[in-house]
Write a structure and sequence with these properties.
- The protein is an alpha+beta fold and about 475 residues long.
- It has a domain of about 250 residues: FAD/NAD(P)-binding domain.
- The chain is about 40% helix and about 25% strand.
- It is built from 16 helices and 24 strands.
- The strands form six sheets. Strands 4, 5, 13, 14, 15, 16, 17 and 18 form an eight-stranded mixed β-sheet that branches.
- Strand 23 and strand 24 form a beta hairpin.
- The N and C termini lie far apart (about 50 Å).
- Keywords: Monooxygenase, Oxidoreductase.
- It comes from Pendulispora brunnea.
- This is Tryptophan 7-halogenase.
């Protein structure tokens, strides 16, 4: 293990691997530690087209294509009485993948190694030492051998996932959203069907009175099939079954739509349960550190945005550090841009996911909300329905990349913030109790602080930040 490094990355999932690779390709010395030994199982199999764009930037997309994952061109949402197709291939000319995360994550980590990142697995980061607010050392505990410190680095990237090395253990700045406190239960099948008109390799999302189902085709004829519901509903219903397997099978057969998809399929067994509580930290970075992926925030998996947010934050953090390292921007300016870019992405997707849980809106309401969130709200005649174009772009993750790289396309901060706050406050069912700050604060204040950011992200001829002028209207 190297003694001196410019950047220490904690966590070897997609966020950590992409950030480390992007920096190494800019000539920055990077060391990465990961607590698990890969390959390791992980949920989050359905990727957005934005992931392709980001992986192309670090020259690994072709490796993912060649690996044999299912190519994903869109999907079908069946939400209450509405059903609609989103086809990224025909509408946007881009596709993504349905992946086995154990294999996908290992592929990204191996790519990091091949680009010069010093990778060590089986090492957990347990404690961070700070000096005047800046991290100066990380206490590491290997699964074999004695604990040791890494204490010679300039930047710490926290990609530790939901464990949240910095946010939960040191900064105490993670705020939970009381409106999206869900639980997911899932397993695997072979040879399931898809809903009619599903684009090639597409995901199916099907609502129910108590939640929603995902149906994701994977390589080898397998399918990931899961159900997401509120924690209180899950807890109450769990009492009626002798096992999670029994509960899962009952949930699958409750939905007529899902039941038809698995009618001739083989159940492979092995039930998983995980909480999907949405949260965000008050701040995503500070002197000498950046929090990326789930270490900074997590959003309900309804629109498969988890890996998008991980890769987007990873590339943005890497661009910030690379520019600071070359003396092109100050550290403060880079942190302002990172906060601006990452929180805007989270805030916008939070608003859209939350609005979809308000079922009475219908798909026309979802589409109109999407128009407002992108800033392309058209003037509609009485009785005219909204187009799905903005919705299709949003769930592809592309507006976040467009706005980071082209300041002229950015929607006014106040508009995004107001939309997200409106949804969040409408969803609030109870006042926050003592010691549980209002989640709305993490949606509002940092966006205002970062509103005057004057940079854009560039990937060519080098990764970094470039000074520009943000559109003011």
């Amino acid at each position: 293990m190297s003694k001196r490094t410019k950047v220490l990355v904690v966590g070897g999932g997609p966020a950590g691997s992409v950030a480390a690779t992007a920096l190494a390709r800019e000539g920055v010395q990077v060391q990465l530690i990961e607590s698990a030994r890969f390959p390791r199982y992980h949920i989050g199999e359905s990727l957005t087209p934005s992931c392709r764009t980001i992986l192309e930037a670090i020259d690994v997309a072709k490796k993912v294509d060649d690996y044999g994952f299912v190519l994903k061109y869109g999907g079908v949402l069946r939400w209450e009485s509405d059903s609609w197709v989103f086809d990224w291939g025909s509408r946007l000319g881009i596709n993504s993948w349905q992946v086995d995360r154990a294999e996908f994550d290992q592929l990204l980590l191996e790519h990091a190694k091949s680009n010069g990142v010093a990778v060590t697995t089986g090492v957990s980061a347990r404690e961070v030492t700070f000096h005047e607010g800046r991290p100066t050392a990380v206490r590491c505990v290997p699964d074999q051998g004695a604990p040791f410190d890494i204490d010679d680095f300039d930047y710490l990237i926290d990609a530790s996932g939901r464990n949240g090395l910095l946010s939960t253990r040191h900064l105490d700045n993670r705020r939970m959203d009381k409106t999206l406190r869900n639980v997911a239960i899932w397993s695997y099948w072979r040879n399931t069907k898809s809903l009619p008109d599903t684009p090639k390799g597409g995901i199916n999302v099907i609502s129910s009175p108590e939640g929603w189902y995902w149906v994701i085709p994977l390589a080898g004829g397998r399918t990931s099939l899961g159900f997401v519901t509120r924690k209180d509903v899950f807890t109450e219903r769990r009492r009626n079954y002798s096992s999670t397997n029994e509960m899962y099978r009952a949930l699958v057969h409750e939905s007529e739509s899902v039941r038809e998809l698995v009618a001739d399929a083989e159940y492979l067994g092995g039930v998983h349960v995980e909480t999907d509580f949405s949260y965000a930290a008050d701040r995503f970075g500070g002197p000498g550190y950046f929090m990326i992926g789930d270490a900074a925030c997590f959003l309900d998996p309804l629109l498969s945005t988890g890996v998008h947010l991980a890769l987007y934050s990873a590339l943005t953090a890497a661009a910030c550090i690379a520019s600071v390292n070359r003396g092109e921007v100050t550290e403060d300016a880079s942190l302002t841009f990172f906060e601006f870019a990452y929180r805007r992405a989270y805030t916008r997707l939070f608003a859209l996911v939350s609005i979809m849980y308000e079922r009475y809106l219908g798909k026309d309401g979802f589409f109109r909300t999407s128009d407002r969130l992108i800033g392309e709200e058209p003037s509609l005649e009485a009785g005219e329905t909204a187009s799905s174009e903005s919705f299709v772009k949003l769930i592809a993750g592309l507006p976040d990349l467009w706005e980071a790289t082209d300041a002229s396309t950015r929607v006014l901060t106040e508009r995004l913030t107001a939309e997200a706050l409106l949804v969040q406050r409408r969803f609030m069912k109870a006042e926050d109790g003592p010691g549980s700050p209002d989640f709305s604060s993490v949606l509002e204040n940092p966006l205002r602080d970062a509103e005057s950011a004057e940079y854009r992200l560039v990937t060519s001829p080098k990764l970094g930040l470039e000074r520009t002028k943000v559109r003011e209207s």
